[in-house]
């Protein structure tokens, strides 16, 4: 057993001092504690005995006082008032009243005598000279009736004592005066047992219970009398004047004086002594008044427990004083001895502190002619070696720290400024790291994202998300990471977009996973490029096919058109009235249509050979609008134009731009019902770097399911006799050859809107200066 472990972190000097103090003080404290305990037990026993003795004496005095009242009443009833009721006559009333009055003067407790017939009539009433005013209510019919009624319930040979409160002063001169009293009832019966009346003796409650407060002068205690329902009838401090003898009218409760547990013990009906929680001792005894109607009463006394230990405290004070003097003496000797023993140890400790603080010269000089001196020499030699080794380590640490800081700074910059979203997760999938790329990509700030589950933050709960999580968990178990998983994630504001996801575990030095790294790359641009590449490849294939088909059809169509023209001319000359000419005109019309189709195919499939130059977009659009004015009027359509005249010129092919304008206006006319309006507007773009041609109609609009196909070659909604399906693809091809774009907006019920954007060339200012 290591004795040092019995102490907390203390110095050796303090440990030695404590050891000496314990060796000297433990026996003294043990003897003092034992003596104090025995003394306290004896004082407590003596006090409890005194309390019980005082209670027994108080109970005896009260019971004796009540017995004296009963004996006096029995004497008066038997010798004076009883015969009066039996004779039922007023003969000799004055001598009887004189005898009763003299008897009351001799009784210390009784103050009134009454004789009441069985029917409640008072035939005799007298009181002592000690009563200042006769309580009128007790002499009334109500009190007489109560006494006669209770007398009927008393068994033969028995009497009854009941609490009453007598009032006087019922006139207007002053308030009521209440006198608590004990009324003792002595029934008078004839030989046949018939009730003739009752003799009543009323005694002062304050005199009857005067003995309850008497006790030993040396023991200061609080006395109380409590009824069976817990209400106080008397209390030496809180209810001293016996103002209310009836428990139902008392406003003082036993639990207010004692605790709940103490009140329950006092009301148990048994005698005893106990200690209650507020450092008090209570002794109680039942007050049994045989044959009374008062009910069970309990007499109790309370004394402070602190009053019991005065002698113990004096003994304890003397013992502690002597112990303190002895303790100081031992402490002084212990400190003197400890200083001699521990001086070299403190010297070595100071040397260790200097060595730890970086000092090079830390030799210690100790002369004790024992092992401590040898330890000091060894420490000095070790300090020299440690100082040299520490210098080498500091140089190495400084070099490695610089390298680590540089690497950390580079990694932090890469992480913070990466365009990809780099997220650090804990084992539960909650965000712990959120770089700027993640903020820019998903719209959540660092405080908003930190602590959130990444699945709930970026992936709405659905069946697909549950399947995806299962796939990620399976891949993590199989391969330890998930690399370039093509999926979708949802930002804070906006729809989900395609991303590439890479997830790998983060492990500590022992190889245990402590979290996950998540790299999310936006693949929307890549997806658009792939879509454009696929569309370009498809358009290239269609262009090649269209060009080949146009070349194959061009010469046969030219020959057919020539022959049809000669045949139509001959038919008009030779057979003007026959129907052959009309048929030939139909063939000629469809042949012209096929020629236009081959021309569109050639324009769509290869670069145009037209020479490029400055083009005034407003003039071109105005000229095309003038050509189509009659066409629109024939269809009962309104063509509105808003062509800015102060625009810069474009670099491009004027015929091709005319083709765009012509196709957009004819498509708008085909889509607009009679009475509708087609609007063409030419304007400068918002940023001033391009010109925009806008054509909008008031038709039904393009259905949602067809909007993605309107620029596909040969796709048309005009039916078999409508267009070729190359108008809009040709417009887009021409716009792209001019470095521009074409876009469409449409909604069912409010028409379509096509906007073609042409970039302005760098030479536009020079051309404008030359008069274009």
Quick take:
With 772 residues, the chain is α+β, with helices and mostly antiparallel strands. It is 48% helix and 20% strand. The longest helix is centred in the first third of the chain and has 76 residues, at 12-87.
Describe the SSE topology.
Blueprint: H1 12-87, H2 93-106, E1 110-117, E2 122-127, H3 141-152, E3 160-168, E4 177-189, E5 195-204, H4 205-208, E6 222-227, E7 232-235, H5 254-257, H6 260-266, E8 272-276, E9 280-287, E10 297-304, H7 310-356, H8 371-417, E11 421-425, E12 431-434, H9 436-442, H10 446-449, H11 454-458, H12 463-479, E13 482-489, E14 497-507, E15 513-522, H13 524-574, H14 580-605, E16 613-615, H15 617-627, H16 629-634, E17 638-643, E18 650-652, H17 654-671, E19 677-684, E20 690-697, H18 727-737, E21 741-746, E22 752-759, H19 764-769
Parallel strand pairs: 17-19
Antiparallel strand pairs: 1-2, 1-5, 3-4, 4-5, 6-7, 6-10, 8-9, 9-10, 11-12, 11-15, 13-14, 14-15, 16-18, 19-20, 20-22, 21-22
Helix pairs in contact: 1-2, 1-7, 7-8, 13-14, 15-17, 17-18
């Amino acid at each position: 057993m290591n004795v040092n472990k019995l102490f907390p972190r203390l110095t050796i000097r303090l440990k030695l001092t404590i050891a000496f103090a314990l060796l000297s003080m433990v026996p003294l404290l043990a003897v003092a504690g034992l003596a104090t305990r025995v003394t306290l037990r004896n004082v407590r026993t003596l006090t409890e005995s005194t309390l019980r003795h005082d209670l027994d004496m108080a109970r005896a005095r009260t019971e004796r006082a009540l017995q004296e009242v009963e004996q006096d009443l029995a004497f008066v009833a038997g010798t004076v008032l009883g015969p009066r009721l039996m004779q039922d006559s007023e003969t000799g009333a004055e001598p009887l009243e004189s005898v009763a009055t003299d008897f009351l003067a001799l009784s210390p407790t009784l103050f009134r005598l009454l004789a009441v017939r069985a029917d409640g009539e008072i035939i005799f009433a007298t009181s002592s000279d000690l009563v200042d005013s006769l309580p009128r209510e007790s002499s009334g019919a109500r009190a007489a009736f109560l006494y006669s009624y209770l007398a009927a319930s008393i068994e033969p040979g028995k009497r009854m004592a009941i609490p009453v409160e007598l009032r006087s002063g019922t006139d207007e001169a002053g308030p009521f005066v209440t006198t608590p009293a004990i009324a003792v009832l002595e029934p008078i019966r004839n030989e046949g047992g018939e009730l003739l009346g009752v003799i009543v003796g009323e005694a002062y409650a304050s005199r009857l219970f005067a003995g309850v407060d008497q006790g030993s002068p040396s023991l200061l205690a609080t006395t109380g009398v409590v009824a069976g329902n817990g209400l106080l009838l008397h209390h030496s401090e809180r209810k001293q004047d016996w103002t209310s003898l009836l428990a139902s009218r008392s406003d003082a409760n036993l639990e207010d004086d004692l605790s709940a547990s103490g009140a329950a013990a006092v009301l148990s009906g048994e005698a005893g002594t106990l200690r209650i929680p507020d450092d008090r001792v209570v002794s109680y005894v039942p007050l049994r008044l045989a044959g009374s109607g008062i009910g069970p009463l309990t007499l109790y006394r309370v004394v402070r427990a602190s009053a019991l230990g005065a002698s113990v405290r004096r003994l304890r004070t003397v013992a502690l004083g002597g112990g303190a003097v002895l303790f100081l003496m031992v402490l002084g000797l212990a400190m003197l001895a400890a200083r001699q023993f521990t001086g070299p140890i403190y010297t070595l400790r100071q040397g260790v502190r200097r060595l730890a603080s970086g000092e090079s010269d830390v030799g210690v000089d100790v002369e004790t002619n024992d092992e401590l001196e040898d330890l000091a020499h060894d420490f000095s030699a070790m300090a020299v070696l440690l100082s040299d080794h520490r210098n080498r380590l500091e140089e190495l640490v400084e070099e490695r720290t610089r390298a680590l800081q540089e690497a950390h700074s580079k990694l932090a910059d890469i992480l913070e400024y990466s365009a990809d979203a780099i997220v650090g997760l804990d084992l539960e999938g909650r965000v712990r790291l959120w770089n700027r790329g993640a903020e820019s990509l998903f719209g959540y700030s660092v405080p908003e994202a930190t602590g959130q589950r990444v699945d709930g933050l970026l992936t709405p709960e659905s069946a697909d998300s549950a399947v995806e999580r299962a796939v990620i968990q399976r891949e993590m178990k199989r391969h330890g990471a998930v690399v370039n998983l093509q999926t979708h994630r949802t930002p804070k504001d906006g729809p989900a977009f395609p991303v590439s996801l890479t997830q790998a575990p983060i492990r500590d030095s022992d190889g245990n996973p402590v979290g996950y790294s998540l790299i999310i790359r936006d693949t929307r641009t890549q997806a658009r490029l792939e879509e454009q590449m696929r569309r370009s490849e498809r358009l290239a294939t269609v262009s090649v096919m269209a060009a080949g088909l146009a070349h194959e059809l061009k010469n046969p169509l030219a020959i057919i058109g020539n022959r049809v023209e000669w045949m139509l001319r001959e038919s008009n000359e030779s057979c003007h009235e026959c129907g052959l000419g009309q048929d030939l005109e139909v063939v000629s019309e469809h042949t012209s249509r096929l020629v236009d189709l081959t021309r569109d195919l050639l324009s769509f499939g290869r670069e145009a050979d037209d020479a490029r130059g400055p083009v005034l977009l407003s003039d071109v659009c105005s000229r095309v609008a003038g050509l189509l004015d009659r066409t629109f009027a024939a269809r009962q359509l309104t063509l509105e134009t808003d062509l800015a005249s102060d625009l810069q010129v474009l670099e491009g092919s004027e015929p091709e731009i005319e083709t765009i304008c012509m196709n957009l206006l004819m498509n708008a006319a085909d889509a607009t019902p009679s009475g509708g309006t087609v609007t063409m507007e030419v304007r400068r773009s918002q940023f001033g770097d391009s010109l925009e041609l806008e054509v909008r109609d008031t038709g039904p609009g393009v259905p949602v399911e067809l909007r993605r196909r309107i620029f596909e070659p040969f796709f048309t909604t005009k039916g078999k006799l409508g267009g070729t399906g190359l108008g809009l693809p040709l417009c887009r091809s021409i716009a792209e050859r001019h470095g521009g774009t074409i876009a469409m907006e449409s909604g069912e019920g409010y028409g379509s809107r096509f906007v073609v954007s042409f970039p302005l060339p760098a030479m536009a200012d020079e051309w404008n200066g030359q008069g274009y």
